[in-house]
Amino acid sequence: MAKYKAFSIDLDKDGIAHLVIDVPNQGMNVWDENLIKEFSAFVPEFIADDKMKGLVISSSRDNNFMAGADLRMLESQDGELSKDAFDRGFAMNKMLRDMETGGHTERQMQREGKKAKPVACAIEGLALGGGLELALSCHHRVVADNPKIKLGLPEVLVGLLPGGGGTQRVPRLIGLQNAAQMITTGKNLNPKTALAQGLINEVVEPGKTVEAAKTWVKANIEKGVLQPWDVKGFKVPGGAGSMNPKAVQFFMAANAMAVQQSKNNYPAVKAIMSCLYEGTQLPMTRALMVETKYFLSLFADPTAQNMIRTLFVNKQAAEKGAQRPQGIDKVEIKKVGVLGAGLMGSGIAHVTAKAGMEVISLDRTMEEAQKSIAYTKKILDKSVSRGKMTQEKADAFLARITPTDDYDMLKDVDLIIEAVFERPDVKADVIKRTEAVIGKDVVFASNTSTLPIGGLAENSSRPEQFIGMHFFSPVERMPLLEIIPHEGTGDLALAVAFDYNSKIKKTPIVVKDVRGFFTNQVFPPYVNEANLMVIEGVSMALIENCAANLGLPIGPLAVSDDTTQKLGYDIMTSTQEEMGDKYVPTGSEEFMENMVTKWDRAGRRFGAGFYDYDENGKRLGLWKGMTDHYPLLEQQPTAEEVKQRLLYALLAPTARTFAEGVVPDPQSADLGAIFGLGFPPYTGGPLSYIDTIGLDAYIATSDMLAQRHGARFSPPNKIREMAKDGKTLYGGKPKQTHYTKTMLNGMLEVEVVKIANGLGIAASVDDLKRDTIAKILKAQEGKKVA
After folding, report:
1. Catalytic status, residue 45
2. Is 69 a catalytic residue?
3. Which of 654, 664, 718, 773 could form a disulfide with 744 if both were Cys (CB 3.0 to 4.6 A apart)?
4. Is pLDDT larger for residue 371 or for residue 738?
């Protein structure tokens, strides 16, 4: 028996081989190049070796069976569409198919009675993506009775589909409807739900999975086994096929729902539905070829490439502290002082306590300080009532927060996070009172969203230990953390910020200390563009619907209401006062003043804004009275024009902040926009989107918008220079992208024309867009999978 590095094999007296996966140099078991190579060598050995009569697969890691494929391996590959690429892509499917068939063909199994050696898996931890697909290719699946175990296929979340048989084995086990729900959403199942649906075969006591798996294998050695779909006459549970009434009805509804949910922005959703439809009408081997075809088409699409880079590779690097200064030992943070028990302070206290740290929640009075307790108790009570947490654990959670109005209670904290009222004098007072009590090495972080950190640090007796940490509301749900060092911030303070973040598990980006930092420089131009369109007479419903179709989680008018016009107005007036003659008008100053001071439409919290609300704050509908002040245009702009303005109102300030060094790299800008502002994830972020369409196309559209609507859309000189030099935002030369019809349809005419011209296709904005798209697709035909 050969020796392997990614797994060990032990053969017992019954001839049952026990393969224990333990991938070296990986935090979790994943399909990396070494495991794929070795497993591919083991499968034919297992089939041919008569001493191995059956197989049990498990993991050496208690909490992790396998977490899928190493996406860093995928990110390093080009999305090629060719026969060779197909053969490489199908290799894993063939390997797993050989394991479950014993190397026999479907004809041999169904007509000649050939069977395979029994293979079972023993799962004690999460099995996701390619890990679950490995389990599904086993004949029997045993999972530990642990509700924390996750079984799922999350590939859609990075723009892909399961490429190891998931789209074909899942529907054959649990039916089309359950399969579509699972695969198109990426949601996980716990063991008992998976058992009830038929995805797995047994749930046993933790620690007993290998024993149960071996028992099943031993019982099936003599007679041999087949997967259900390899038995002659097999039918998909609930029905499948183009002529099955139940299947036809399902696809009619499911396809419509998929488009509604994805807004046609995620090619993976369509590809998954196509795999389910086409594959379930074919024999398994042919169905797996269909899956591979669609997987490769997605992998060649920039949507998946951008999503993998930003949402997995760059996100993971940021969360592991890629920007943490070197040479500073990790600081153990056990107790945190949170100054201010308002909405932000209470949210910070909650996530800190959730991470296992003690919290001293300080405010002016005990009554005010108690608000942090009430905030967390409300969240915990909901978790307990829904069965997600025991009362005992909730009580222990709440006990980690101590409310106080006494600064002396801060004397032994390891970190201070200030979240008091946004006034420099108030913050200056708490800084001085806090520093008089805390230890000399304790870092002081301010959660200000608008005030420069360097200015606040002037009130500190140790400015090198002063830093900004900007959270987003609601803190327990929003994933981004902006870390803002000022010019005098030392490495220790920056390291402590990252060490604290590693506990609360946010996605951190380091941002330059400028007014508004990153997100609050990008967000206001976006909502201001919506304001300007309302002033011009564009329908508010059109604006909100176009934002939704772009893939934004909430429209600009609704988000203005949620953050309140009052806050925007206050920031605007304070900025005007501070900047004086240097203030650049946005064009909506009078509008904002009227909304807040004249029409009493200051936002959701105040009971009215762009929308009407009931007494509980429920959104009722758009305010019809707006047209009394700003009549609707008789000729409304097209949906494409509105989407264009909204999209570029986000792209323009992002490009500017990158050009000005507000963020140090494109990765930080894309992470900040997606996780802080809800920028459409399918793009990979604003700068990924610009790179994808090409700098020339971006500049052409921006110049056109600047000419029509104002200089705010003009691209920065740095972007023009990079385009002139043939550079890209992410580095290197522009590469030829394989565009799909879905993606091209989602682009603007001027962008499609630029792409066409780059391919040597004569086109202009006067051409019909669909004709230009057809020419681009035809030019790429030679690169399609055979």
Report:
1. no
2. yes
3. 773
4. 371
